[in-house]
Fold:
Amino acid sequence: MNLTATRRGEVAIRDLSKSFQISGRRLDVLSQLSLEIRSGECLVIVGASGSGKTTLLRVLAGLETADDGEVLIDGRPVHGVGSERAVIFQEPRLLPWLTVLGNISFGLEVRGEPQAHARETARQYLSLVGLDDFAEAYPRQLSGGMAQRVGIARALAVQPEILLLDEPFGALDAMTKITMQEELSRIWREENVTMVMVTHDIEEAIFLADRVLVLPQVRGGRVKLIDIDLPRPRDRSASAFVRQREVLLREFGLH
Amino acid sequence: MTLQNIGRSVSFAVGRDKPSPAAALLARMGSASRLALSRYGLVAAFLVLWQVSSTHGWVNPAVFPPLNAIASALWKGITGGALVDDIAISLQRSGLAFAAAVVFAIPLGLFMGSIPAVERAIDPILQLFRQTSALALYPVFILLLGLGEASKVFVIFWATIFPLLLSTVGGVKEVDPKLIEMARVYGASRLAIFRRVVLPGAIPSIFVGMRLSATTALLLLIASEMIGANKGIGFQVMNAQYNFQIPLMFAAIVILAALGLIANSAIVLLQRRLCRWSEPVSI
Ligand SMILES: Nc1ncnc2c1ncn2[C@@H]1O[C@H](COP(=O)(O)OP(=O)(O)OP(=O)(O)O)[C@@H](O)[C@H]1O
Ligand SMILES: [Mg+2]
Structure:
């Protein structure tokens, strides 16, 4: 049986190259990258600072155009942003003049959904991220973790096939971070969405990923893909988890 | 030892009786009056000093009449109707000019801020006009528009445009590009981005511009009325001084100060209603 025709949220990256001009010199950030991301998969991108993680994510989002190669989503080439993708940035990027509920329904509203209906949908996602009591609060009244949850709810509310996340928990403290990772893992399973996430945090990568993409430290080096075959929900203290950690740390030459 | 101390202080705090409602009210009134004192104490001290120096002859009471003389001149001017016409004409001049500036400068500023090419084209001439004092141009406006109402309203309008225009342009340009990018990711059209991100983001700056412009409008109102008018509060200040009606002169000045304060708080009130999400900055 062939299910590929009904699969949603599949990403194919073909020979993708991207360089920047920095003070007259060419900097090859991504060169000839090819990769298939499966529907419903969670792919986590790690790599040293400046290795091009954000650049790759921005190309996938359609915020940056590749110099060469292409990105296909469900078989169609990407040109610019698209309604099947949503992005969660490192900062929550909430509109300060909208309430929490208004921020969550913002994406739906700019897509032309009637406001009453958009707000109704927004309420469901407000519950999903556990902020029912803060519907009418303004962003300045939220903590960092709460604001980031609002950003996540806003992205999920438009029901994307693909969720692109760039270090979404990078600015949070360790405890909040763990809670958020657990919540994200639960939401990901419930919403059946393809996730591509950039992180600096090896433990976060192993906790969430089906596969980890390691971008090379040296320019022009080869990317590596590492399967994380651990049962879910994952236990950070399990010996298999710790072993995976060591494997990944070795990739960074830290072990 | 320390632990015991902590324990004792905790039980002390818990064991303390709840204050009675009357005491609570007194305490609230006390803190309210302290707040009022810290906020208006200096103003009150200034007024007291004025009154005492004037009545005791520490300053020349002919130049600094006692407050009660000013108050009675003010009262007579308003109830007798002598100052009412002046207030009306001054309000009309500055109100017209300010309204025209709002209608002209805010849309132009939004347009300039949104489209860099437009700003590049307009900015040099704007800077040239802005750096030329409006008062220096007043004779030109008089030549063009005559000595009547038109030239006065126009000179006020002219000076009032610039703070509002520059604040609006600045407000639009300072909208966080990350928010605009976020809206773009959700597929917002250019118009939607303008309406839902740029405009609300620029509103606090526009209000700052409106407050600066209101101040400018009153400044230019007085200057133009002192130069060539036979009515208006600015005229009354000058005229009362010529005729040595010093309490009347101060009464006119008090009216001016009151107008400025009222205009400012009206704008702040409007801002509070329009942007409950942010606190107005005081300038
Ligand atoms: N708009 C741009 N113009 C010029 N150079 C850029 C631009 N964006 C990124 N770069 C360069 O591309 C390289 C990769 O940047 P990128 O932001 O993708 O790295 P990253 O892997 O996300 O790093 P970090 O972990 O620090 O976030 C950097 O050397 C950066 O200087
Ligand atoms: Mg990055």
